[in-house]
Amino acid sequence: MISHDIKMIPAREPPARAVGVMAWVKNNLFANPLSALATLLIAYSLYLFVPPLVQWAFMDATWFGESSSDCSSDGACWAFITARLDQFIYGFYPEEQQWRADLFFAQLAILIAWLSFKVTPGKKWVLGYSLILMPVVSWFLLYGDLLGLEKVETHQWGGLMLTLLLALCGMIASLPFGVLLALGRRSNMPVIRSLCTAYIELWRGVPLITVLFMASVMLPLFVPEEVVFDKLLRALIGIILFQAAYMAEVVRGGLQAIPKGQFEAFNSLGLSYWQGMIMIILPQAMRLVIPGVVNTFIALFKDTSLVLVIGLFDLLAIIQAGLNDPVWLGNSVEGYLFAGLVFWIFCFGMSKYSQRLEQQLHR
Question: What is the reported pTM?
Answer without folding.
Answer: 0.85
